[in-house]
Amino acid sequence: MAYPIKTCVICKEEFELKPDKPGFANRCPDCTEAEATEAKKNRSMDADERKNMRDANDARREAMRNLLYRKDS
Ligand SMILES: [Zn+2]
Description:
Largest sheet: 2 strands, antiparallel
Number of strands: 2
Number of helices: 1
Bound molecules: zinc ion
Oligomer: single chain
Mean pLDDT: 89
């Protein structure tokens, strides 16, 4: 059975559009996989960034607290 041939919008390669292909119908399996990996990477990076920001805020708050204590004593 032949599948329809589509042109990938990312790499311009032609690929067979199989009914069980995950992701977008206008992206070849390679690009779909690459994009899924990239999306996963970005998500974890955002989480790390958020954590780093929280840590930085905590550190700043603690530094400020130490400064205040030092002023009091
Ligand atoms: Zn592609």
